[in-house]
Design a protein that fits this description.
Blueprint lengths: L1 H19 L14 E2 L2 H7 L17 E6 L4 H16 L5 E6 L4 H6 L7 E5 L6 E4 L4 H10 L5
Parallel strand pairs: 1-3, 2-3
Antiparallel strand pairs: 2-4, 4-5
């Protein structure tokens, strides 16, 4: 009986932990977490490239989209910087990430050829793309100048 209670408690703990950390693009855009996108959630939350010929941002807050791969060294170094910015600018910007190995059609459709590639998207106007590992200072400057967030 005691083992059964321990197993049930462990199961609930794992369930709650997985629910709390789940970020699949359907989450709260003001939470301060980096949100993972699939091809479908990208089209819903960022840009529906299959319908629109011209750029049309679907979001309500400025955004950064990180196109990365798990094997990419510079991507691994950039990831904690973006996580810090997502927390710092929670409620002001949204930080998304797209695994280009998992979402090859999306990466190809968006013209992603080098990693990491960041897409800085203001609420209105055209996005700005950067390639490579950016310093925290450059990221902050781009947020201020392109996304117009202080």
């Amino acid at each position: 009986m005691r083992k059964a209670i321990i197993l049930i408690a462990l199961g609930f703990t794992l369930l709650l932990t997985n629910c709390k950390n789940s970020n699949t693009g359907n989450g709260d855009t003001e939470s301060g977490a980096v949100i993972s996108l699939t091809n479908e959630t990208f089209k819903t939350n960022v840009f529906n490239y299959q319908i629109n010929q011209q750029w049309k941002y679907e979001g309500k807050l400025p955004a950064i989209v990180d196109f990365y791969a798990t094997w990419c060294g510079p991507c691994k170094k950039l990831s904690p910087r973006l996580e810090e910015l997502a927390v710092k600018y929670a409620g002001k910007i949204v930080v998304y990430r797209v695994d280009t190995d998992q979402e090859q059609q999306l990466a190809q459709s968006m013209g992603i050829e080098s990693l990491p590639t960041l897409l800085f998207i203001p609420v209105t106007g055209q996005p700005k793309q950067t390639i490579g590992l950016l310093s925290s200072e450059t990221l902050e400057q781009t947020i201020t100048e392109v996304l117009l967030v202080k």
